[in-house]
């Protein structure tokens, strides 16, 4: 699994209502992104952005392609930073499980 952290510098922090409105407006874009498991919208004093969870590095790279920074700049007026991480272990409290590389894992005693 791949986690991508996108950070968009801006200030001041928009009110929650504005952040929600923007997130809902752009959510349809992300419903069809190949391999995207989830996107979490971020809103804070340091800026906005998102945490993206992809199934594979190839699908993440396909989304965050060479055109992506310019597309984001056209939307937000600034270029975001992008940091990509491998994610081998997930604690999923909603599902009540821990997974390693997507498979349920036994915890050490």
TrEMBL record:
UniProt-listed SUPFAM superfamilies: Dimeric alpha+beta barrel
Gene3D superfamilies: 3.30.70.100
Name by which UniProt lists this protein: Mono-oxygenase ydhR
InterPro entries cross-referenced by the UniProt entry: Dimeric_a/b-barrel
Domain of life: Bacteria
Organism: Albimonas pacifica
């Amino acid at each position: 699994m791949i986690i991508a952290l996108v950070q968009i510098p801006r200030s001041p922090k928009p009110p929650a209502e504005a952040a929600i409105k923007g997130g809902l407006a752009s959510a349809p874009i992300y419903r069809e992104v190949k391999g995207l498991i989830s996107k979490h919208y971020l809103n804070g004093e340091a800026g906005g952005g998102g945490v993206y969870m992809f199934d594979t590095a190839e699908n993440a790279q396909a989304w965050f392609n060479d055109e992506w920074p310019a597309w984001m700049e056209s939307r937000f007026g600034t270029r975001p930073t992008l940091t990509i991480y491998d994610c081998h272990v997930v604690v999923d409290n909603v599902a009540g499980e821990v997974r390693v590389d997507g498979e349920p894992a036994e915890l050490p005693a």
